[in-house]
Input
Amino acid sequence: MGTSPTPVGIDVTGAIRDAVLRGEYVPRQRLVETDLCEQFGVGRAAVRAAFQQLAAEGLVEIQRNRGARVREITFDEAIQITEARMVLEGLIAARAAERISPAGVETLRGIGADMAKAVADGELAAYSDLNARLHRCVRDIAGHETANRLIEQLRAQVVRHQFMLSRVPGRARASLPQHQRIIEAIAAGDPGEAEAAMRDHVASVVEALRTLETSRTAVG
Output
């Protein structure tokens, strides 16, 4: 009975992934198989398959004879992940500059204007959402499916650190001109400058994470 098939329309993997990314499960929290089976109305096989997929994505770790738990990403690992993203995001930005259309330019500049307004109004949550939207838009314009898939996987692993970083005073104001530089480089159809602008921006995220780690260690 524990191996019954997943009901049609239930994406157990996606539901658990979303819950982890929203912070409903905290790092090192055990994921109780029986509870999830009851929650989603599925058998153990579906939940175990979800654990295996999420483990491959780096969000969950499976412990021998102890089940699964949310994987804790250290600051050191988050920095390494972001360094890897820097290369991929640079590739994406260059590709977007090669493929940009007038409509794409208008969309990117519109997001940039909204980001500037969010900073001026002190709307950090709105700025964070617009930041994610901008990067998503650049990826859509680039149309590089492999790089996009890798970036999404890496981004998911550091979403908790990105959230902490977004709340650092002055971070939004510091990153705004970096995003505006990326937008204008892509709008100009300049792959080299677009890649450089994106890599410089992500490098600043790495430095901000290092600073955040140092400050948290000092407080601890």
About this structure: The CA atoms of residues 81 and 154 lie 6 Å apart. The first strand starts at residue 30 and ends at 31.
